[in-house]
Amino acid sequence: MTLRLFLMRHGETEWSISGKHSGFADIPLTKNGEEEARQLGERIRIFSFDHVLTSEGLFSAIDPLQSNSKMATPSIVGKRHYELAQELRSTMAINRN
């Protein structure tokens, strides 16, 4: 069985347009961001997912295997988010081509 890993980010927000980083803030999508989300839904509807992990504000779009960031620590992102990041990193390392 081939592992497929899909990484998706939220759509456009006013903060992403201006270059601000929302961190753990829940910033609403712009109309364009809502359309991006709808389009993504259409693109992925052909797949069935055995497992889905979601997290709010974990970290920005980076390659976790190449990052030297010290920001993803339990004291900064919380234990649950930290463990999720470590699980993702481990899964990606095992399945990297």
Write the layout of secondary structure elements.
Layout: H1 14-18, H2 31-44, H3 74-77, H4 79-95
What is the structure about, briefly put?
The chain is mainly α and about 100 residues long. Helices cover about 40% and strands about 0% of the residues.
Structure description:
It is a single chain. By secondary structure, this protein is an all-alpha fold. The chain has two domains: 1-52, no CATH class; 53-97, no CATH class. The chain has four helices and no strands. It has helices spanning 14-18, 31-44, 74-77, 79-95. The longest helix is centred in the last third of the chain and has 17 residues, at 79-95.
Question: Notable features of this structure?
Answer:
flat; 4 helices; 41% helix; mainly alpha; 97 residues
Number of helices: 4
* E-strand count: 0
The proportion of residues forming helix, as a percent range, comes to: 40-55%
Rg for CA atoms: 15 Å
First-residue to last-residue Cα separation: 15 Å
Write down the overall mean pLDDT: 75
Q: Biggest sheet: strands, sense, closure?
A: none
Helices and strands, in order, run as: HHHH
Find the structural class using helix and strand composition.
mainly alpha
The low-confidence parts are: 57-62
Report strand %.
under 5%
Q: Which outline best applies?
A: flat
